[in-house]
Design a protein that fits this description.
2 domains, 287 residues, Aminopeptidase, globular, 39% helix, 6-stranded mixed β-sheet, binds zinc ion, 9 helices, two-stranded antiparallel ribbon, alpha/beta
Length: 287
């Protein structure tokens, strides 16, 4: 390559690099799914390479023109199914403290999360396992199994079970996400957990990391303990990425600020939604 051509090529590369860096959809794939401020940015025309540019980088051979009538092949946009599970319900109250009941807060938060996702993102379908103060069964074992079966029937990519934690001395604080150790859903579950926990941390909620827990008494056919948490265990059995988000401790003086008001609950739901979409668009590997 002649010196002049080489210089032109290098300058073009630098220019394209600067342009690409300023283009949001490539910078941040989450924006690709947002209803507002996404693809139809009029500034996009600024980043269109000319025919001459394309010649220089070898996209078209010299003299060849791009057909202006040709329809570009659209890249298919993946569709995602998200199931949100408000933990407990009916006679299962979950934790309760200072007049607040976990089952009610979980339902409120799940509704806020569903609304936020549907308002801000396209190409997603969101379901909730319950929309009233009713569990899926009076029997706890059956109730938990049914929540995961509901997600499997909907062909869910992920099942996010929302909970709030509590401790005996009310001193523990922060968030954790319970995940399965089973290889078919472990890696995706861990990444989903990391995304959600990182977003909750932006509100000031302590990140206690993902949690793996073995059953105390139940083992598989190889003598290896199964997952302790039924949602995770059934998730693995049904090939659904199923995680339990313990968003904070509802009985802790520090954490109570995150659930005290509707505005606080909305802020939490917003960060959880961003974390979920970050996982789906950046890290999710469909099995
Ligand atoms: Zn709970």
């Amino acid at each position: 390559m002649k010196k002049q051509s080489l210089m032109a090529f290098l300058l073009l590369c630098a220019a394209l690099c600067v342009c690409a860096c300023g283009k949001k959809p490539k910078d941040n794939e989450i924006d690709y799914y947002k209803k507002v401020g996404s693809y139809d940015d009029p500034d996009d025309s600024l980043y269109q390479a000319s025919d001459k540019d394309l010649e220089l980088i070898g996209e078209v051979t010299p003299g060849e023109k791009k057909d202006p009538t040709a329809t570009p092949t659209p890249t298919p946009i993946p569709e995602y199914v998200i199931v949100i599970d408000p933990g407990h319900g009916g006679s299962q109250v979950g934790s309760s403290y200072d007049g607040r009941e976990e089952k009610k807060l979980n339902l409120q938060r799940a509704t806020l999360l569903k609304n936020y996702l549907e308002t801000h993102y396209d190409h997603i379908t969101v379901y909730m396992t319950r929309t009233t103060d009713e569990g899926l069964s009076k029997d706890l074992t059956e109730d938990l199994r049914k929540r995961v079966e509901f997600a499997a029937e909907k062909h869910a990519d992920i099942l996010v079970s929302l909970h709030l934690n509590a401790s005996d001395n009310h001193k523990k604080n922060g968030a954790t996400v319970c995940i399965s150790k089973q290889p078919n859903i472990h890696d995706n579950s861990e990444k989903l957990a990391t995304c959600i926990l990182s977003r909750l941390a932006t509100l000031g909620i302590k990140n206690n990391g993902p949690l793996l827990r073995d059953s105390n008494d139940t083992k598989d056919e190889n003598g290896v303990p199964v997952d302790y948490y039924a949602i995770c265990r059934h998730g693995a059995a049904n090939n659904v990425i199923a995680v339990i988000v313990e968003s904070c401790h509802m009985d802790n003086a520090t954490d109570i600020e995150f659930i005290k008001t509707e505005a606080a609950l909305s802020a939490m739901a917003e960060q959880e939604a961003i974390g979920i979409m970050e996982f789906l668009t950046k890290y999710y590997v469909r099995q």
